[in-house]
Design goal:
single chain, 11 strands, 121 residues, mainly beta, 7-stranded mixed β-sheet
Length: 121
Amino acid sequence: QVQLVESGGGSVQSGGSLRLSCAASIYTYGIDYMGWFRQAPGKEREGVAAIESNGNTKYADSVKGRFTISQDKTKNTLYLQMNSLKPEDTAMYYCAADRIGWLLLPRYTYWGQGTQVTVSS
């Protein structure tokens, strides 16, 4: 069983930055794909960024050039650096992991509990 715990959310003003972290349990053998998703009230969960174990990444068009996904395998931790934040980035952010390459599709097997990001104008 893979356990994921997000942290780093908070409230910032438009144009600000936040870095989200997702700590994974040590039992991550075979987990080759991880991603960040977000869900705003009344909206569907959407993929934000994904990363493969080889370092390949994929981003939603809405965050390209502003968000960066990365991973530290020595710490079993996934990161999402978010710069130039906008009010429309406000949402609950979740990290996810799987052995299958779902990339930005919300079909991952393992999910964290989420961390709230609020961006004010």
